[in-house]
């Protein structure tokens, strides 16, 4: 589908999001900012979980027409699946990019921006002769740990033995369990073998060093300034902190798999300020039924009103993997204090005055949104970068509490009570308000994020 209008700069940037809503959304938010600054935007995309071109007539959308093997699409190991996506999409991506270069009477392709998970596409773009930048869908701290991993492995270090060197040199806010010499807060994916995770991280880090022209991160200096400086030193190339993207984006961009239940906003209207706990574990994480039961009992036992997102597919196990809990289960579990929805308009929920806390998986988009609304966090990381973000929420930024490694109803009820009304609640809320002010300052006209996007456009035009 062709985009509307023509680039006043005579240049266009090609963007290639990873086929997941949490990755597509920030990529298109950035695309809108680039478009507003005079660049034409062509979005290459996989047919798997493809974005809807009708929602963005300002961009040109082109499918790479990949052929994903069945064993990749249905692989329960998400890290192996990402490696499989890279292998299957590399050749069709390069072919589609080279075809764009041959188009006549179209703005010149100055660069390509690929999602940070597309390590193979960095090499493909280099072979096609197009400068490529990687856009991270996580934070600077997570990416910094990924860059450090290959060097540590070469020195004989792995996450179970000697990882303290990484903690001391690069990630001082991470815990190290001295009795096992392991790191609780490094990237982990429980359903994936450790060596598979390390292989993927190494592939990403090596591709960044070998084939990228820079990195784009949806973050800002006030929360990750030292980490951004270390990334620039590690890569010896630009790192653009363009966040919070959802505040800068000229148009509302959200790509979800479920329609939000906007009726929950009226329910929130009936509650006093900062009295409701919002609960959502994002669009991908899955939990066992036993964990669901403990969460439900802990919520009910806390006495705190709550809005709980229980999307289809959240529960693991059973014949129907996509089944949500039955209405009877929910009625029995949540009591009278809670409201359950299959999906919520999260940004509006977090901005609602009745919401006083966010029980979250600590996915990076959720982190950006809760920081920008000044809402304290109850952290329950599930996998990957979420463990890193949870540590920063609790110990670096001081705006949240950890729900605990063991999900048990009494512990949950206590954690909720402490978050919403504990002795440190006012200090935590004040720190959250401070981060909100910093985020708004960065996103304001002339702020650091806006300047970073300007610098990014200048850099793209110079390539």
Automatic annotation (TrEMBL):
One Gene Ontology molecular-function label: quercetin 7-O-glucosyltransferase activity
Xref: InterPro entries: UDP_glucos_trans
Source taxon at top rank: Eukaryota
Entry keywords, A to Z: Transferase
Gene3D superfamilies: Glycogen Phosphorylase B
UniProt entry tagged with the keyword Glycosyltransferase: no
Keyword Membrane attached: no
A Pfam family hit: UDPGT
Family label: Belongs to the UDP-glycosyltransferase family.
Designated name of the protein: Uncharacterized protein
Source organism of this protein record: Eleusine coracana subsp. coracana
